[in-house]
Predict the structure.
Amino acid sequence: MIRSNFHTHTLFCDGKNTAEEMVQQALANGFEQLGFSGHMDPDIHMDIQAYYREIRRLQKEYAGRLDILMGVELDNMYDPRCADEAEYIIGSTHFLDVDSEIPMSVDNTPEMMEQLCREFYGGDYYRLSRAYYELEAKVYDRLKCTFVGHFDLVTRFNDSMHFLDESDPRYYRPALEAMEYLVSEGLPFEINCGAYNRGRKEEMYPNRFLLKALRDMGGRILISSDAHQKELLSGGFDEAVRRAAACGFTHYLILKHDPAGRVVLEGRALDLK
C-alpha cells in the first residue's frame, strides 16, 4: 500500500480543503509522508509566504506523526526564484511560450486549446504537441525540479476533442525525445492519477505506451494522486501500481526528510496486494 502523496493542492491555490484538513486526512489514510505542492504558474499562484508559514506550522505541530514536506508545483513558464524556499519542486508544463496577453494553457478548457492551436500553430495539433514536448524537455534545465509532473498533459482534452492520434509518430516521437533527455538527466517522472480521479478511468499520465517506454529507458517513477480534495488523497493508487507493474516497474520513489532534515528520494517495492 502506498502511504504517501507529493502532489497535493489546497485552498492556497485551486484545492478545496485547507492544508490542515489534508494533514488530518493523510493521518486517517495511514500516510507516513505528505508533500504539499501548491501551484506557482502564470495563471494560478499562491501567496507563497503565507503558504510557507502554514506548512512550517503544520510540520512543527504534527512532528513525529507525519513527515510533512513543503513543495511547489512550478510551471515551466514561471520564474523559479519564486520558490527558493521550497523543499522540492514538481516541474510541470501547462502553458506554451506564445505571444498572448492571456496565458495559454493546454489544460484549461477545450475552447482555449482550440484557440491556442488555431492562433499560434496554424490549426496543426501535431505542431502544437511538438512545441509542448520541446518545452517539456527543458523543464529540468529551467526549474531544477525534483520530478516531472503529468508529462503528457497536452493530451488533456484528447479524449473528447480527438485532435491527436497518440499512436502516430508525429505525436509520440517528440514525446519520446523529451522523455529520453529528461531520463538522461536522472529526473524521475510521476504517474499522475488526477484525470483518473476526475472520472476519466482510462487516463493517467504518462499513458501506457509512454510509461512502458519510460521503463525501457531506465526511468524512475513516483505515484501521485494530484489531489485537489481530501477524499482523493489516495485516489487511483491501486490502479497506478497495476499499470506500473504491467510496464515492468518493480519499485517507486518517495520523498522523505532524512535525519539531517534534508529531503531525499528513497525507493520502495511496488505492492500488488
In short: The chain has ten helices and nine strands. The first strand starts at residue 4 and ends at 5. The chain has one domain: 4-269. The chain has a mean pLDDT of 96.
